[in-house]
Design goal:
By secondary structure, this protein is α+β, with helices and mostly antiparallel strands. It has one domain (71-293, 337-408): Cytochrome p450, CATH 1.10.630.10. It contains 16 helices and 12 strands. The protein has helices at residues 9-14, 23-30, 47-54, 90-99, 115-127, 137-142, 144-154, 161-171, 180-210, 216-222, 232-245, 248-263, 265-273, 278-288, 321-324, 359-376; strands at 34-36, 42-44, 59-60, 134-136, 295-300, 304-306, 309-311, 316-319, 377-378, 381-382, 402-404, 407-408. Strands 1-2-8-5-3 form a 5-stranded mixed β-sheet, covered by helices on one side. Strands 4-11-10 form a 3-stranded antiparallel β-sheet. Strands 6-7 form a two-stranded antiparallel sheet. Strand 6 (304-306) and strand 7 (309-311) form a beta hairpin. Helix 5 (115-127) packs parallel to helix 16 (359-376) and helix 7 crosses helix 8. The longest helix is centred in the middle third of the chain and has 31 residues, at 180-210. The radius of gyration is 21 Å and the shape is globular. The relative contact order is 0.17. The chain binds protoporphyrin IX containing FE (HEM). Protoporphyrin IX containing FE binds at residues 61, 83-84, 95, 241-242, 245-246, 249-250, 253, 291-292, 295, 348-350, 354, 356-358, 361-362. InterPro entries: Cyt_P450, Cyt_P450_B, Cyt_P450_CS, Cyt_P450_sf. Belongs to the cytochrome P450 family. Keywords: Heme, Iron, Metal-binding, Monooxygenase, Oxidoreductase. This is Cytochrome P450. GO terms for molecular function: heme binding; iron ion binding; monooxygenase activity; oxidoreductase activity, acting on paired donors, with incorporation or reduction of molecular oxygen.
């Protein structure tokens, strides 16, 4: 059943007042599995329909299929896009070429090799809490840690890392915009910074071509695999994509995760006794409070029938993952945080061909960070509940998270 309503549900989802708790709106959304908004766009919030559409090739991710032709979405010179904004066969080829330098089957040990480094980075950041009784977990850990990790993955030398901390801050700014004029200014600034990051990667790629190392950029620029090598433009788009996609998401994962755990001290107690529980806790945290609340910008390239409704060709469709994850048709008592639940097929990393490329890295980063926080902070507790949130509705998480504690264990 399609429903047209006087009030745009999307407007209410974007309303900053709903940031701390968007879940009642999602409950309303799920009453109409496929909802047509006033402006002709579609919102889908039920688990089964989201899964169906994530796997439907008639829903395009290609920015050039959008009604505006992808204006403002191109990262490269002219109108070139990274693989998150492409369809097969271009998407699949570029994703395979990138994966050869990131994970199995070609580099099965690469990510595991980063674990010790991650543990050291987190340890040093928590060591710095000593002598204090309150910290902002976002500024002190959740924000800087993923930048350091993605720089390691790509092969950015440590001395250049501060540049990336600055750039990432600028690149995500459009998501914090307070209105159309502000958005335009922030977009311009983000574009300038992306262009700087591309120039930087072009220089670093040249160095790695001459003297390759054990990092992703070296792999991308020296690849002699059966499918050939990425073009320079695609390589730069991929490096910038990994920087952006790998950052804000993980910051919010660690922020939302810390918040949920502090609201459930009995789970913190269990984690202290059973540290291996962190793997299950992670899956439940991402289901319960997903950092990526929705996937916007899919476009139908044909009429698509779903949930009893036909979405017409050329419609913009938003898949509300955060709602699908709380659908009672997916798991019983979905508003309860329960690491013991058996349902594991959450939508936190999307699904289908665009399923999160960095999921194993994100899992490892979050498990290391939350595992160490739980183990080392004595009697941690929230100072403000709810905390102040970032403006961004789709990449949702706390802007600050003040945590008080009695001491720091070794
Ligand atoms: C907890 C943290 C993370 C979450 C919740 C998350 C979530 C997602 C989601 C929902 C998608 C699907 C987007 C779509 O369908 O259009 C996605 C795609 C992607 N993610 Fe992540 N992500 C996380 C961390 C990372 C990290 C650390 C990296 C970097 C290594 C990364 C790289 C990517 C890339 C490259 C894509 C595009 C995949 C494709 O188009 O084939 N993500 N992510």
């Amino acid at each position: 059943m399609t429903e047209t309503s006087q009030t745009s549900l999307m407007q209410r989802m974007l309303d900053y007042a709903n940031r701390p708790d968007p879940y009642p709106l999602y409950e309303e959304l799920r009453r109409t599995p496929v909802r047509r908004e006033e402006d002709g766009t579609y919102l889908v919030g039920t688990y089964r329909e989201i899964v169906q559409l994530l796997h439907d090739p008639r829903l395009s991710s290609d920015a050039r299929n959008r009604p505006d032709g992808g204006a403002g979405a191109g990262e490269g010179d002219g109108m070139s896009f990274s693989f998150i904004l492409l369809d097969p066969p271009e998407h699949d080829l570029l994703r395979r070429l990138a994966m050869r330098h990131f994970g199995p089957p070609h580099r099965p040990a690469f990510l595991d090799g980063l674990r010790a480094d991650m543990a050291r980075i987190v340890r040093e950041r928590i060591d710095a809490f000593a002598g204090r009784h309150e910290v902002d977990i976002v500024d002190a850990l959740a924000y800087p840690f993923p930048v350091t990790v993605i720089c390691d993955v790509l092969g950015v030398p440590h001395e250049d890392e501060p540049l990336f901390h600055e750039w990432v801050e600028e690149i995500i700014q459009p998501g914090e915009a307070t209105g159309p004029v502000d958005l335009e200014a922030r977009r311009k600034r983000a574009e300038q910074v992306i262009s700087k990051a591309r120039d930087y990667f072009a220089g670093l790629a040249e160095e790695r071509r001459q003297a390759p190392r054990d990092d992703m950029l070296s792999g991308l620029v020296t690849d002699d695999g059966p499918e050939g090598r990425m073009s320079e433009d695609d390589m730069l788009n991929t490096a910038v994509l990994l920087l952006i996609a790998g950052h804000e998401t993980t910051v919010n994962m660690i922020g939302n995760g810390t918040l949920t755990l502090l609201r459930h001290p009995e789970v913190i107690e269990r984690l202290r006794r059973e540290p291996q529980l962190i793997a299950r806790v992670f899956e439940e945290l991402i289901r319960y409070d997903s950092p990526v609340q929705f996937v916007p910008f899919r476009t139908t390239v044909a009429d698509v029938e779903v949930g009893g409704t036909t979405i017409p060709k050329n419609a913009a469709v938003t898949l509300v993952l955060g709602s699908g994850n709380r659908d009672p048709a997916f798991c019983a008592d979905p508003d309860r945080f329960d690491p013991d639940r058996e349902e594991r097929e959450h939508l936190g990393f999307g699904g289908g061909i665009h399923y999160c490329f960095g999921a194993p890295l994100a899992r490892m980063e979050t498990q290391v960070a939350l595992g160490e926080l739980v183990r080392r902070l004595e009697n941690p507790r929230l100072v403000n509940d709810p905390p102040p949130y970032r403006r961004n509705a789709f990449l949702r998480g706390p802007r600050h998270l003040q945590v008080a504690f009695d001491g720091v264990r070794d």
